[in-house]
Amino acid sequence: MFEPLFHDPSPDPTALAGWDLSVALINATVQIDQPSGEGVRTVGTGFLLDAPRTDGSPRTVLVTAGHVLDRMPASEVRIGWRVQALEGDWRFAPQPLQVRGPEDTPLWTTHPTQDIAVMEVVAPRMFARAAIPLAWLADEDTFEEARVGAGDELLSLGYPRGLSANRAGFPILRAGRIASWPLTPIAAFPTFLLDFAVFPGNSGGPVFWTPTARRAAGVDAPDHPYVAGILVQEVVVGQERLGLGVVAHAAYIREAVALLDAPPRPEP
Q1: pLDDT > 80? residue 170
Q2: Name one GO molecular function term (predicted).
Q3: For residue 145, pLDDT beyond 60
């Protein structure tokens, strides 16, 4: 069953059901980049999850597309933290993040079948607090319960061509309609298409629904906003971009995070 999307027990969840997820996800979304040549950088998108360990201790997890990190060969990437000054202004304050260990061993964990990477990170306090709860991720039943269909609108955040919404480094918010059918069961259809223009730099961005998004006429809106998935690919045929993105269902992000708690495999 789909978990409630609000992990703070003090407010009344029913009173918060219409709250817009957009600003929360904007605050939790970051640019990931690495130099790839003279004056050129490889760019991707990531977002932060509040995903406590099995013992209940706090943990902040960076989620992105697996190929984003695969295509950044150096041991460190730059993660685009943002800092708010006392007077309310914001500035872009990126910091290095080590993603490879000795002998270039990846420090992230990848999903076994989907292009999803997760990695525990030490984030500035502001970003650790902005990380979205794991319960906000859709599970394998959410699309059925919310009666999601072809033509429904979803929102996405990212950094197309490395472009941000402003000098403070906030992500760009886009909207697109679901271009696939059927959408479930996700075991048979682990990804779906979203009709919007995708560019390098968008990969790894969250795809989500809030009450601001359009739905088919006569279909009731869900009770809660939710993260539907993660953008993992742009559809290109030959040299032609089709204006479609491939989204992996959020249930696979849940599975990837669960792998962080799995005991390490013994070496052969």
Answers
A1: yes
A2: peptidase activity
A3: yes
